[in-house]
């Protein structure tokens, strides 16, 4: 084996192809031609003397040798990046790019503002922010950390609980003037509901009364949507009543464009969490952003401290 052919650049190309399963996707991600990625892989396999990837017309997968080599490459690249962080730390401020995935509405209304403040503190750190309500494969997409709402099941990621999001029922004053204000949970069945199509069970509301009793109420309506900001607009436009996060409509409640409905009846809280790709958790700039977000998010109205 000619060790001079085993370069970090070729390792990175191999790792990303192994994670994404597509040469063309990695070429677009790295801003190079697909022929460059193909050459990196060929030269790396020639230098090692073993096939690392199995290619078909539809997908690229790792061979057994490739899987073992991938695990070693991840550790090597992590150590190289950490060494770079430490070297830069002796010179001054941390630098580099952090890739973040975030729930869309929370990203627009809150996370982007917090990231701006973080970059004001650390001007040498770049951020690539991707807003989506889909549960993406963080490793495959090259993401370092992700802000997510709701229960999580990906045990391969490091998880940091950020808080519990308070939810409430709201409607516009014009809607309530035209249709009446519900006074008990059962009244909701006669109203237009604004529902989230990407939230399981949105056709039913579960409310806890002031006496602790649990109320399960059918919840229907003519408008369903898969984006929190569109639901916010529908509520403000008087299209119906909807359950929503306080952080999503706090400003509309404050200026009177929305009003809280059945305030004595509580909706279940929703957890807000930070997922961290384990191989990225030790990188200084990632640690800085994780700690910054955890501290700042605790100050957003409607987000309570994580429950033990």
Radius of gyration: 24 Å
Number of H- or I-type helical stretches: 10
Any low-confidence stretches, pLDDT <50, length ≥5?
Answer: none
What is the overall silhouette? Answer: elongated
* Percent strand: 15-25%
The total beta strand count reads 15
Order of helices and strands: HHHEEHEHEHEEEHEEEEHEHEEHE
- Write down the domain tally: 3
Let me know the average pLDDT: 90
Known CATH architecture of the largest domain? 3-Layer(aba) Sandwich
Helical/strand content category: alpha+beta
- Fraction of residues in helix: 40-55%
Biggest β-sheet strands, sense, barrel: 6 strands, mixed
Fourth-tier CATH superfamily name of the largest domain: Periplasmic binding protein-like II
**Biggest sheet strand line-up:** 4-3-5-14-6-15
The CATH topology of the largest domain comes to D-Maltodextrin-Binding Protein, domain 2
CATH class of the largest domain: Alpha Beta
Q: Whole-Å distance between the termini?
A: 53 Å
Describe this structure in words.
This protein is α+β, with helices and mostly antiparallel strands. Helix content is 41%, strand content 23%. The protein folds into three domains: 8-86, Arc Repressor Mutant, subunit A, CATH 1.10.10; 93-165 and 270-304, Periplasmic binding protein-like II (D-Maltodextrin-Binding Protein, domain 2, 3-Layer(aba) Sandwich); 167-260, D-Maltodextrin-Binding Protein, domain 2. Strands 4-3-5-14-6-15 form a six-stranded mixed beta sheet, covered by helices on one side. Helix 1 (8-20) crosses helix 3 (34-48) and helix 2 (23-30) packs across helix 3 (34-48). The radius of gyration is 24 Å and the shape is elongated. The termini are far apart. Keywords: DNA-binding, Transcription, Transcription regulation. One of its GO terms (molecular function) is DNA-binding transcription factor activity. Belongs to the LysR transcriptional regulatory family. It holds the Pfam family LysR_substrate.
